[in-house]
Design brief:
The complex is a heterodimer. Chain A is mainly alpha-helical. Chain A has eleven helices and no strands. Chain A is globular, with a radius of gyration of 22 Å. Chain A starts with 5 loop residues before the first helix and ends in a 7-residue tail after the last helix. The C terminus of chain A is likely disordered. In chain B, the strands form two sheets. Chain B has a six-stranded mixed sheet, sandwiched between helices. Helix content of chain B is about 35%, strand content about 25%. Chain B folds into two domains: about 150 residues, P-loop containing nucleotide triphosphate hydrolases (Rossmann fold); about 70 residues. By secondary structure, chain B is of the alpha/beta class. Classes of the chains: A mainly alpha, B alpha/beta. Chains A and B meet through helix 7 and helix 8 of A and strand 5 and helix 3 of B.
């Protein structure tokens, strides 16, 4: 059972972080790994503080790329799912294409996007969109076509149009399935943006990491990584909270006594 | 507007290569309650789906006529074995689901839905999520949703078979009162339920199946369980349903 106490809900993840950092420090103390391979937690914390202006500047860029990519990918993915569910001829042409698009390695796509769109924000946003689009489109479409027959029967006897049936019956019925797609998308979004920055950029956390690596500023590299992890975590829990708010009946479900 | 009677002709259903029934015909009297009884796999639920105009995977054919000559579409309400409550609407929203889904719901609809909830004894649960209800309560909400459509023809496919025996008997009384005056066609596999509720009782039996009309006990719906006549007829009906089906 989940603990309802908000304090202990906060304490447990913090405890996990403390344990991880301790293992990190212990590894360095025991093995004597050199600084330029693995900096100490303290050195990374110092870099986080001392370089905060630099980190903030690059983090903003990456954040914009991730959020824009997430919004664009979700909107496009959802639109694709609805269109696939609504128009049968579209399924035959678009569905195989969608599956093939998944076979393209993202890393191979990145240089092409750079070539066409330059080194600005746009190719990174597109990378994030591409990586988000598929899980949203596929879980959305799966959810839309797995509406229980009984609800479709009701919709028929209620005299709904196909459009009403799609939006009022199939879409809410698909929400739980779509929610898992959105959670997947949220954790994948930073990957797309950072890959884009690695391939070619002059700003962003991915660029900062490569740059710091080249200059042997390993503590800055780790600091950038910490910021990126924080982004991913915030994004995941943010999307999770939004998804829960969209499905209030899941939250205060009363479970019958065993 | 008085409820229409229904007539079916040339009803045929083939399951793979096997004909379940062929060229059936039947009349369902206006404003009366007809029970369609049969064992599992007899095709009784499929026949009901055909009348409702719902999708069926198998080969089927049916000529349907109403006594007033107007189409049945938009005048029928459907109730299934599952309550079919949607988890994303509260209880009151599930009662007025038809209006919600058609995008026509008004304040008057809400009041009517509330009134129907009172009549099935669940007014206090109006703002709960369906997940908080028991199986019997959910089926009562489904009944209120069926009534909300205010249809003159009500088609029910084993509506009370998923609840416990006592709840089923209670639901018989509620449904009996609330559905009075409509043309009701109910599929069931429970001889007792059929004998309690039916004005007319048809048994779908044989291979391929025929519709056999069975006399029902006297008295008003729902007939008492202790009724001697009802008990006798139940024994006879069970014996008939157990006959080998190659007749």
């Amino acid at each position: 059972m989940a603990d309802a106490n908000p304090l202990s809900r906060l304490v447990r993840p913090l405890l996990a972080i403390v344990v991880l950092v301790s293992i990190w420090q212990l590894t360095i103390s025991l093995t004597g790994v050199p600084r330029y391979i693995l900096p100490t937690p303290l050195a990374v914390a110092r870099a986080l503080f001392e370089q905060r202006a630099l980190l903030e500047q690059h983090a903003m860029i990456t954040a914009i790329e991730i959020v824009a990519g997430l919004v664009g990918g979700v909107v496009l993915g959802l639109a694709t799912a609805l269109a696939l569910a609504r128009f049968r001829p579209l399924r035959r042409t678009l569905l195989p294409l969608l599956l093939v698009s998944q076979a393209i390695p993202l890393f191979a796509l990145a240089p092409i996007l750079m070539l066409w769109l330059g080194y600005g924000l746009l190719p990174k946003i597109l990378m994030a969109m591409v990586i988000i689009y598929f899980p949203v489109a596929s879980t959305g479409y799966d959810g839309l076509r797995q509406t229980p027959q009984g609800w479709l029967d009701l919709a028929d006897t209620f005299g709904l149009t196909r459009r009403q049936r799609l939006l009022k019956v199939q879409l809410p019925a698909a929400l739980p399935s779509l929610a898992s797609g959105l959670r997947m998308a949220a954790s994948a979004a930073p990957i797309g943006a950072v890959i884009g920055e690695w391939v070619g950029a002059s700003r962003g956390l991915g660029y900062l990491m490569l740059n710091a690596n080249a200059r042997l500023q390993i503590d800055v590299m780790f600091a950038a990584l910490v910021v990126l992890v924080m982004f991913a975590v915030i994004l995941y829990f943010g999307v999770d909270a939004a998804v829960r708010a969209a499905m209030p009946w899941h939250r205060d479900r009363v479970t019958p006594p065993a | 507007m008085p409820p229409p009677g229904l007539e079916i002709h040339r009803a045929s259903l083939t399951f793979g290569e096997r004909p379940l029934f062929r060229d059936l015909q039947a009349r369902f009297e206006a404003g009366s309650w007809t029970c369609l009884l049969g064992r599992s796999g007899s095709g009784k639920s499929s026949l009901l789906r055909m009348i409702a105009g719902l999708a069926l995977p198998d080969n089927h054919q049916l000529d349907l006529a109403t006594s007033d000559g107007r189409p049945l579409r938009r005048r029928l309400a459907w109730m299934a074995q599952q309550d079919l409550l949607v988890p994303w609407q509260r209880v009151i929203g599930n009662v007025m689901l038809g209006a919600k889904w058609r995008g026509t719901s008004t304040n008057a609809d809400r009041q009517r839905a509330m009134h129907l909830l009172e009549r099935v004894g669940l007014a206090a649960k109006a703002d709960e999520w369906p997940a908080a209800l028991s199986g019997g309560q959910r089926q009562r909400v489904a009944l209120a949703r069926t009534l909300f459509e205010d249809a003159s023809v009500v088609l029910m496919d084993e509506p009370f078979s998923a609840v416990d025996a006592i709840t089923r008997l209670e639901l018989h009384e509620v449904a009996s009162t609330l559905l009075a005056g409509r043309t009701v066609l109910m599929v069931t596999h429970d001889p007792l339920e059929a004998l309690r509720l039916a004005d007319h009782l048809l048994v779908l039996q044989g291979e391929p199946a025929n519709l056999v009309s069975i006399p029902v006990p006297a008295g008003t719906r729902p007939r008492a369980l202790a009724d001697d006549d009802l008990q006798r007829r139940q024994a006879a009906l069970v014996a008939q349903l157990r006959e080998p089906t190659d007749g």
